[in-house]
Amino acid sequence: MSVEEAAEKLVREIETTTDLNSYCTQLGDDIMRGDLSILKLVEWLGPLLTNTRVTDREKGTLNLSYVLASLRPDFLSEKELFFLTAFYCDRTLDHHSLSSAILQGVSALIRMNNLPADSPKLIFSSIFANVHCQTLMQSERNALYKIFQYFLVHKLTDIVPLGVDFVLGFITAIDGERDPNNLILLFSILPRFLTSFTLGHLTEEAFSIISCYFPIDFNPSGDDDKAITREDLAQALLPCLIATPEFAEFCIEMALEKLASNRRVAKVDSLHVLKEGFKTVWNSANVEPHLTEIWTALKSELIPGNSDLDVRCSASETLSELLKLFSRQRPALLASFLSDILSSTCGLLSDTRLSLFSPAVDLLEVTAKSSELACKQVVSNVS
Questions:
Q1: Residue 116 region, left (φ>0) first, then alpha (ψ -120 to 50), else beta?
Q2: Residues 154-196: pLDDT tens digits?
Q3: Which residues contact 143 (CB under 8 A, 6 or more apart)?
Q4: What pTM does this model have?
Q5: DSSP assignment of 48-70
Q6: Does the chain have fewer CB atoms within 10 Å around its N or its C terminus?
């Protein structure tokens, strides 16, 4: 059978089959048995891949992508994968209708064992330059995010050398995502991205793209028990906001701004961010410039004693973590901070009948329990 005849037969099969995926799996089996080569398949697909009709080019590309997905990861050689990488990078210049087929092919390609060392750079350069994520459908954006996820989880060393180019391309691609399923996926990989790359001059922009979701404002539709909830999104977002100390300045200012609002959920989420930041990521140098503002905000939730119980409890936990941070790193600054706390509360202990007596006692109890240093200073001033 001539090349022309084989190509015509292949095109007819593709155009008439009702299950393209199954047919491509058969072609993949032929390739792994040695009855067909991947390069020969591309040659036979030529009439579709070079057709003037976009739908035909899409069908040809999708066929190749399905075949790739059916192959063993160790089957293709480095030479074959070099050719296929160049092919898919070139496809990104084609009509946007091919995006789904291209991304499926790239998803299969990057999982191959013998992928050439320079392929990640070529792939991401082409995607960032030619695939505009915000114009893609939800499923296509999800496919792109899963490509990011694969490299960040399994091949991080292949993309870290891409440096600022990858950082800019990544944050540009995810900017403005609104689908909850896609957001859950992004929030799961953002901490690894943020801790693996130097953000440099893109730090504030990266934080802005992430922090636009804070506090999460989302109401799931329908009665699906498996539907993503507001709490799911809020819990997934928090580690992204405090993933790196580079975010500290922006994150603290954002949390204090939202804490000043009248929305309960904004207050609680802001306090959770501050608490986890003090507990796990930030150091005293990150926090000290904002200490007066932080204490003023916490005091406004703790001293009146009439705020929402969850807000008050969260504020107490946040204060405790803040005091522990300074106990560990800056005992001298802790002493000064404790003096401010004591001056704000000791005057309220003169009469048990005062409405602020109990809130003041609760605040001092939280303070004393935070560390041995704090306990000694509180006891010596109130005993």
A1: beta
A2: 999 999 999 999 999 999 999 999 999 999 999 999 999 999 9
A3: 100, 103, 104, 107
A4: 0.93
A5: HHT-SSHHHHHHHHHHHHHHHHH
A6: C
